[in-house]
Design a protein that fits this description.
By secondary structure, the chain is an alpha/beta fold. The chain is about 35% helix and about 25% strand.
């Protein structure tokens, strides 16, 4: 295989703020793997919360370039096992795993959802994220992008008041993501008020390791709660199933499509809901997520909608949240 790495700086339409950080740009790494005239693409964004930079990912991938290029890609699962044995970060593994799956699908002459036998006609609609901002700005963002489902980022002193104010401007479904900013008591108190305001579920209200608090929430919250920061890798699924109503899988954090497929299977076996979320990826990463949507209950794949300019073509997200899949094989991506 031939390996290529390239850094992009993705400019956002608006400053994106959550409870712990704000940014106007998203650095991202695009990995390509080429073999027998076909090229597969993968993506991973940088993340300060997990101390991941594009430069750190490029350095660790370059350290094993020769081994990657010499690898016999008989199946992406074997490639993923090889990468894991090399102790790369899950973020780096994700970009390589996505590229391997895209390449594998192209070599097999099928989109990934066909390889998995799921089809692509029945799937959940993605939400559109509204970051923390003055209420007037949050309303402006909603009016700029009318959408059937909004994910509202919270973690302020006036969270319920914010949702109440936003509700005056739309009948769309709300999902709330506090990004670890609430206590158990705050979550339990807020839940009935938010339910009355048309909130579907809460995402990661408590700190990632507050299992005792989540046990209280599970017994007393009137809204379902989805794990995000508490669910990083495969080994987290079982514990989250005892403390949450569902999990939000991030391909970047778990290490790509290969472990995500196993996490989806395990979560379903344990009877909890499954969501996949994005990390403001371009259409490269989002097209990989799109291959998995028929297997999901919820999805957050609005990354390209938050960008000023995309860097790729692939899956298209329509104004009603529905998808137009690429006619290409693999994940269906082409770089612009």
């Amino acid at each position: 295989m031939q390996l290529d790495l390239k850094k992009y700086v993705l400019a956002l339409k608006h400053t994106f703020s959550i409870s712990r950080e704000s940014h106007d740009f998203q650095n991202t790494l695009i990995v390509s793997l080429s073999l027998n005239g076909e090229t597969g693409y993968g993506e991973t964004t940088s993340n300060p919360y997990y101390n991941i930079t594009v430069e750190s990912m490029m350095a660790e991938i370059e350290n094993i370039r020769a081994e990657i290029e010499a690898f016999n890609l008989d199946h992406p699962e074997n490639f993923h096992a090889f990468l894991t044995s090399k102790k790369l970060s899950n973020f780096s593994i994700c970009a390589l795993d996505l590229a391997a799956w895209d390449l594998f699908g192209r070599l097999k002459g099928k989109p990934l959802y066909d390889l998995w036998g799921t089809g692509n006609t029945i799937y959940p609609i993605t939400n559109y994220t509204i970051g923390i901002a003055p209420i007037e700005k949050m309303v402006e963002k909603m009016k700029e992008m009318p959408w059937p489902i909004y994910k509202i980022k919270l973690g302020t002193e006036d969270d319920v008041a914010i949702v109440r104010a936003l509700r005056e401007h739309t009948d769309s479904i709300f999902r709330i993501d506090a990004n670890c900013a609430w206590s158990a008591e705050e979550t339990i108190t807020n839940a009935p008020l938010l339910k009355e305001l048309g909130v579907e579920f809460l995402e990661q209200p408590l700190k990632a390791d507050d299992w005792e608090g989540m046990e209280k929430v599970m017994h007393h919250s009137v809204l379902p709660v989805i794990a995000d920061e508490s669910c990083i890798v495969e080994s987290d699924v079982q514990k989250c199933a005892l403390h949450y109503s569902g999990i939000n899988i991030k391909l970047t954090k778990c290490g790509g499509i290969t472990p995500a497929l196993r996490m989806i299977t395990e979560a379903k076996e344990m009877g909890i809901k499954v969501m996949i979320g994005c990390m403001t990826e371009s259409t490269v990463g989002i097209s990989a997520i799109a291959q998995l949507v028929p297997q999901l209950d919820f999805v957050d794949m609005d990354g390209p909608l938050l960008l000023k300019d995309d860097i790729a073509d692939g899956v298209r997200i329509l104004p009603d949240g529905k998808l137009i899949f690429s006619k290409l094989n693999g994940t269906g991506v082409t770089l612009r």
